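Lecture 7, part 2: worked example. A protein chain together with calcium ion.
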Amino acid sequence: MAWASSAPGRRPAGQCRGSGCSFTPSPGGLTLLDGCASLWAAYLPTVELLPLAGLGVAMRLRFLVVPLAVALAVGVSGVAAASSGNVRVTRDGTAASYLRYDGSADATTAACSTGKRSQNEPTIAVDPHNTKVVVAGANDYCAQIVNGDVWAGYYRSADGGSSWQDSLVPGYPADSSAAGVASPVHGTCGAAGDPSQAFDRGGRLFYAFICFNRAKPVNGGVFVARYTQDGATYDRTVLVKPGTPSGQFLVGLFQDKINLTVDQTTGPSSGNVYVAWSQYDGRAPNNAVLFSRSTDHGLTFSRPIRVTPVALGTASFADLAVGPDGAVYLAFVTYPSSSNPSSDIWLSKSADGGASFGPAAHVATITLFDSTQFSGNGATDCGDGPFACPTGLTFSRFTTAPAVAADARGVHVVWNAELASGQSKVFVRNSPDGTTWPAPAATLDTVSAGHQWTPDIASANGVLNVVFYDSRADPSYSPGLPPGDTATGTNSGDVVNTMVAKSADGGTTWSETQISTHGSNFGWETHGSRRDGFWGDYIYISAAGGTVMAAWTDSRDLVPGSDPRETGASDDHDGFDVYQPCTYVPNDINAASYSSPAVSDPCLSQGGLDQNIYAGTP
Ligand SMILES: [Ca+2]
Ligand SMILES: [Ca+2]
Ligand SMILES: [Ca+2]
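Predicted complex, written out as structure tokens:
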């Protein structure tokens, strides 16, 4: 989650992109909001409020929910068919699929097991100590049923990703277990997500996440949970950096969108745990990417250091990698500001095990692929009622973010950005050392149809793997439309697939595989009281030894339906409604306010919200 810094010219001042941001957010807007948005948008209060009079369209986004708080894979020329089956990671339609960390059940895990709620923003990590072990995480909205809000899901496979045990990171509000009560998050924050994970060589698994409240005290801080025994045993959670308790996001400090990696080499910094995240202080553009390390296997973390210069005060979406020599690399994006009018990708390097970073190297000046361009009013996402946009389109938020990997061939930075046509492509730029850039950035392919976005990169055994979403299968594709919409704003089908591109020559040439065996659509109105989509801001891929696995958000299990509030002329017939046999009073999608089902209402557990995390091997 993340709101971000200002971006003059991209959106009207005062627009909101998430949890309570009332300052001018960045074009990606998500920075903080990925979590926030995600988290905010999904909040389903008993009574929902519409925007306050006078605030207008600009303030109607997630902010309004805060106060109360298909087709088979389409064959594509030149792309291999999915090379392996897809596995559903979040099995929330199966009794007893979720268990507590200690193997027991409680009210939360019982509700999660059959709640068919949404999961998004997945992370995944292959265990180098035992590559049969793969773990994943997500914003898991199943926790809402009992706890009222989203929590960090934790999922583990001991058979190479064929089968999964689902769980939650301990410490959710209703967690009465010994470890849950002992966690620093328990009782201090009620919403957790934005996961990022990595193992060390000894089979310790580190799980970074953010946790906050949607009302005062916000306490939006970053934490790292540690699991031992190849991720099988929960050990503890430690605070890396607290947020401030301010009840207004525009004045407090909020830590957001953390990324975590571990030095898996045998070098002098082996086992070091590295985390980087965005700190937003509400006075944009004055964000900072902060960095901290643990040299004692996650027991303690260092006092955070600011990696990004003040001049790059819109820095967001940090992503970390460790090279074979132990060098630490940190990629990030900056949005336009008065001190730097362009959008840019940057890379910072530490040659001393994360004790300090050199100046950021400029990787590329880019054109953001940002969902705000498709709304007509600067909104990051579009749906029904207060979420309706002038363009009449329906989509969940997306933007540009970078990722980095480092291996024996050098350092490889990927991101998505627009071509002059408006098409979003995934770009890569390679460097021998993270400081010099002998070749220009290039796209992974030259396919002319479809947007590509949300890349992540991992390297193992001399092969680079880049995962991304791709809408080349969309028959309605146009550079001027968001993925999944027709020109008239209707659902264009399950047209978003997950792709993996591989390179065995250090990132010069690539071959692509579609790994999703079923397409998805990002526009389903699962969030914001079933009036707006939310898909999250990222996906992940992980590689160790010969094992590669990617995780993504998927809508194949979601049950379409009709919105009971869309009657007569209020029915937009756009095909984005989900199944929800719920009662609203008044029963009007455009009502200024109404009562809606409690978050625990079974009407919301009938499959209409059923986003899931899927995993696959390219
Ligand atoms: Ca609609
Ligand atoms: Ca609708
Ligand atoms: Ca689900």
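The chain has one domain: 31-69+71-616. Residues 1-83 have pLDDT under 50 and may be disordered. Keep this in mind for problem set question 3.
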